[in-house]
């Protein structure tokens, strides 16, 4: 017993047991820093509210350091009995607002109390930014939003570059400028396009003003491309709007059909006239023969 008292005295520590199951350890300056009360341990806390409650009053020191001296040794393990969204680790500010949270189901949240994805970074106010990872699909997403204006911008990756920005979808590009922007080739069995312009059946109406072949020829000589069809320079600068281009090409096919019909009529007329000339020539030959025989 005397040895124990001597050892405690040498260490400069006083152990006092008080009412309400409270144990306090003091150093040689009577400054208490370790408490055991109601089965809770407090370091810097005289009334610990958890199994281990640590308080650091100095701005210069760490509240706790866990160091494993072994190179491959284990550090800290926090184990939860459930696999739901119960918080396993929380970092709060001075106002008890959660800033960093790890749930027992594996979800991690920064600035959010209940992350619905594997990893979410969010601002609880009107504006925010989220990062999420969905398993086992492996989809990684980034989302910025403004709840006051209900404007969302999102980008997702699933092993290849894929983006969804301001209502536009991009594949192989991060800056889609239309509802679907693909930087690469597309392989499809069928493509359906809803037309916003009328189909050119009006070409076959009697009131349609069909240019003469001479007018088309003069236009081609002056411009080196068909009327209503962009030039090669315009194609290179602006690309091709398929719906508009297909309708223009169909229009040219229908005009060409009208030219072909008109040409066939002219050919038929010429053939009929040629037959009449041949018949007339034959009759003249017979008349000449008859005149010669009587002469």
Structure, explained:
The protein is α+β, with helices and mostly antiparallel strands and 295 residues long. It folds into 3 domains: 53 residues, no CATH class; 96 residues, no CATH class; 95 residues, no CATH class. It is 27% helix and 26% strand. The N terminus is likely disordered.
Write a concise synopsis of the structure shown.
This protein is an alpha+beta fold.
Annotation keywords:
single chain; alpha+beta; 3 domains; five-stranded mixed sheet
Provide the fold topology.
Layout: H1 2-11, E1 14-18, E2 22-26, E3 32-37, E4 40-43, E5 52-54, E6 87-92, E7 98-103, E8 108-110, E9 119-121, E10 127-134, E11 139-146, E12 151-157, E13 161-165, E14 168-171, E15 180-182, H2 213-223, H3 232-238, H4 242-294
Parallel strand pairs: 4-5, 8-9, 14-15
Antiparallel strand pairs: 1-2, 2-3, 3-4, 6-7, 7-8, 10-11, 11-12, 12-13, 13-14
